[in-house]
Amino acid sequence: MLRRAFLTVRSRLTADDLRETEAVLAARALELPELAQAHTVAAYVSVGSEPGTRALLDALHTRGVRVLLPVLLTDNDLDWGAYEGEGSLAPVQHRGKMALLEPVGEPLGPDAVLSADAVLLPGLAVDARGMRLGRGGGSYDRVLARLDAAGAHPALVVLLYDSEVVDRVPEEPHDRPVHAVVTPSGVRHFR
Asked: Is 161 marked as binding a ligand?
């Protein structure tokens, strides 16, 4: 129910809203020390009315940052591939899901995320504690569990619209807080 409410609000955004927000989010995110100092960033390609990531991906790539993007596996886990610019992505239709843009290069394996200095996580909301409400597929819960199991501690960052920073979201025992949220109006750190 809560996820549907956030998705409904997003569905009302215009193409102009999405373009403007993407540029602002990229500029704000690039100011984050966690991203400014990163050598490797695991990110994702936004779809539909998600806060746009393409401008940020291109800016990081241009800076020489190694950008890893997810490849969705049949069990909803994530493999990773390197982002080498716009031409390195292809649409992949996953059964029963929307088409995703994924890297076309050699898959690097699910453990490639362990090398990331920062991980950009998709989400629908974040609360005052830094708890993230995801889309419910569990892919990024697996990523976070993999990081925990390996003792890896990258900065965890979520890009959202201003209205998606709320007082409280539901929490499961396996959920982990993010370290920062980037919205069009600014950045908030939780650690």
From this structure: no
Consult the annotation and say whether 188 binds a ligand: no
Structural contact between residues 180 and 32, judged by C-beta atoms closer than 8 angstroms: yes
Burial class of residue 140 in the structure, from the number of CB atoms within 10 Å of its CB (0-12 exposed, 13-18 middle, 19+ buried)? buried
State yes or no: 186 annotated in a binding site: no
Residue 67 near residue 83 (C-beta atoms within 8 A): yes
Which residue ranges in the chain fall short of pLDDT 50?
none
Query: For the domain that residue 42 is a member of, what is the CATH number?
Result: 3.40.50.10420
Q: Does 135 show up as a binding residue in the annotation? A: yes
Domain count, the chain: 1
Distance (Å) of CA 36 to CA 104, 109, 149, 189: 26, 25, 26, 15
Query: Is 183:26 a contact under the CB 8 Å cutoff?
Result: no
Ligand-binding annotation for 64, yes or no, is no
The verdict on whether residue 134 carries a ligand-binding annotation is yes
63 labelled as ligand-binding?
no
> What's the confidence (pLDDT) of residue 98?
74
- pLDDT, position 30: 95
What is the pLDDT at residue 1?
A: 78
**Could you give the CA distance from residue 33 to residue 170 in angstroms, rounded to a whole number?**
29
pLDDT at 111: 98
- Asked whether residue 136 is marked as a ligand-binding residue, the answer is yes
- Residue 157: domain span: 1-189
